[in-house]
Design brief:
Helices cover about 75% and strands about 0% of the residues. It is mainly α. It starts with a helix and ends with a helix.
Length: about 230
């Protein structure tokens, strides 16, 4: 029974990673700006295109894990190391969806279509995040780092999340200016724009609607295999 519980937990969490990666791929394809956690890997990929967005994603996650260790020291738990395989899985899932969408079509220049892709990525991302939480399996390093910073500073998680996202966007804009002379990307691929704000603010709002639906949908599995 314990083995089955683990399989169910990680199946739900893996589904969550897949769905979040799909949202990342759609937001990049929209070319209107992407969510703050994906901004640094994307701008690095534009500067060094031989290294994929997914590779830069798991590298950044490893940096986040190191930061957690430096902040927590002896309070850093071995279970937190599960963030490492999650980083690899998530990174290459992002690559898979980015390559898939690139194979389907070039970035759209039609603003209505761009906005549609950006907006559809919001509920997709919201659903993926909730599935990660429901499964209680994989842990993405960005979310855990936010939790650790909240714990260390004793500031509310929501406040730390906003500040953490702002820091990622500011860092991305500064690097973009240094590398390309623009704050938003390389002039072809847009990393920071209105889509960044849409994803940063609407995802949380959308989760207020999608979370109750997913709670009801997955309630039997959660009760039987996760909270048994």
């Amino acid at each position: 029974m314990k083995t089955r519980n683990i399989l169910v937990r990680y199946s739900i969490s893996t589904l969550g990673l897949i769905v979040v990666a799909l949202g990342v791929g759609l937001s990049i394809k929209s070319n209107l700006g992407i969510s703050p956690p994906s901004c640094p890997p994307t701008i690095f990929n534009l500067a060094w295109p031989s290294v994929s967005v997914g590779t830069f994603t798991w590298i950044l996650h490893l940096v986040f894990i190191l930061l957690q260790f430096l902040l927590l020291r002896k309070d850093f738990k071995l279970s937190y190391l599960m963030q490492i395989p999650a980083a690899f899985v998530f990174g290459y899932l992002c690559d898979a969806f980015i390559w898939m969408f690139d194979a389907i079509a070039s970035p759209s220049s039609d603003y209505a279509m761009q906005m549609f892709l950006c907006l559809i990525s919001v509920p997709i991302t919201a659903v993926g995040i909730k599935l990660e939480v429901l499964g209680e399996g994989w842990i993405l390093a960005g979310d855990m780092t936010t939790a650790v910073l909240s714990r260390v500073t004793k500031a509310p998680f929501s406040t730390v999340k906003v500040l953490f996202d702002i820091a990622l966007v500011v860092f991305t804009a500064a690097f973009s200016w240094f590398a390309f002379g623009k704050l938003t990307g390389n002039g072809f691929t847009v990393v920071i724009r209105e889509g960044t704000l849409i994803l940063a603010f609407l995802t949380g709002i959308c989760m207020r609607l999608t979370d109750p639906l997913l709670d009801r949908l997955f309630a039997p599995l959660v009760k039987k295999y996760i909270h048994a």
